[in-house]
Amino acid sequence: MDITVALGGGGAKGNAHIGVLRRLEKEGYKIHSVAGTSFGGLVGVLYAVGYSPKEIQAIFESVNQKDLYGHAPEDGPSLLGLAGVRHLLDKVIGDKTFKDTRIPVAVTAVEINTGAEIVLDEGSLADAVLATIALPGIFPVQKINGWELVDGGVLNPVPVSVARMLSPHLPVVAVVLNDPIDKPLRGYNLPIPSIVPRTIAERISRISLAQSLDIFLRSVDVSSRYVSYLRLQVDKPEIIVRPDVHEISLLDQVTVEDVAQLGEQALEEVLPQLKRETNWLSQMNRQLFGIRQ
């Protein structure tokens, strides 16, 4: 039972992807390809390289999040840096490229000068991950091939179109981490998330970034909800998995297993629909006639 998956962005909420992948494997589904945006791009790349969901979870659990977001000398202006993330990627991915993955994978980013969506599917995997997670203003812009790239979730929070490009005749399982548009917004209680290094936290506490950062992240939330809603209406994935991660903020420090279980529970809820979409008749209709149920 082959499928392709589209893993959406959402910061710390993205640990739910681990549970989704874990349950898909348990149910006997073979993930033929994976597309990811932002944190979903990170999880997707690790999975495509060959890490199991259990191993991805172990990687995340081994990391002190406060060590991830220091600035490197070459970073442009941003609240947080990605020096620690780069160090982690060097350790778990190294110099691997998209040609070195066991299954096809692609991640999305946005060219900040032109507004174009960029699908990254060649070159350095580590560079691609840094680009797809570069939330504008929070993390530094990443430069690849002359592009100046930021988080792909700005334009395509759940890259269904990219997953379908990778595997045109397979059903797309889309993991959506944004809340529905009719759900009340949550407060972020910022400016000092637990992951922010102490020196930066002290600087923030002395100036009026609290309300600014809270408003910024609420705005990101609103935008992502509506862009996700519109893209899902157009791209029409066969299956939508929506973990209940409303209470988790982009920058929260979380217990990985707790969030992974939310993903597993959400996948369980759509299993009957997934089984219908992967039966022999549905597969034949897609492959021969392009009919999607």
Set down the secondary structure blueprint.
Layout: E1 2-7, H1 16-26, E2 30-37, H2 39-49, H3 53-61, H4 83-92, E3 105-111, E4 117-120, H5 125-132, E5 142-144, E6 147-151, H6 160-166, E7 172-175, H7 198-206, H8 209-235, E8 239-241, H9 256-269, H10 271-277, H11 280-289
Parallel strand pairs: 1-2, 1-7, 2-3, 7-8
Antiparallel strand pairs: 3-4, 3-6, 5-6
Helix pairs in contact: 1-3, 1-9, 2-5
Structure description:
With 293 residues, this protein is an alpha/beta fold. It is 42% helix and 14% strand. Strands 1, 2, 3, 4, 5, 6, 7 and 8 form an eight-stranded mixed sheet that branches. Strand 1 (2-7), helix 1 (16-26) and strand 2 form a beta-alpha-beta unit. Helix 1 crosses helix 9 (256-269) and helix 2 (39-49) packs antiparallel against helix 5. It is globular. The model has no long low-confidence stretch (mean pLDDT 88).
Features of the shown structure:
eight-stranded mixed beta sheet, alpha/beta, 14% strand, 293 residues, 11 helices, globular
Structural category is alpha/beta
User: Stretches where pLDDT falls below 50 for ≥5 residues?
Assistant: none
What's the overall average pLDDT, rounded?
88
- Major sheet, described briefly? 8 strands, mixed
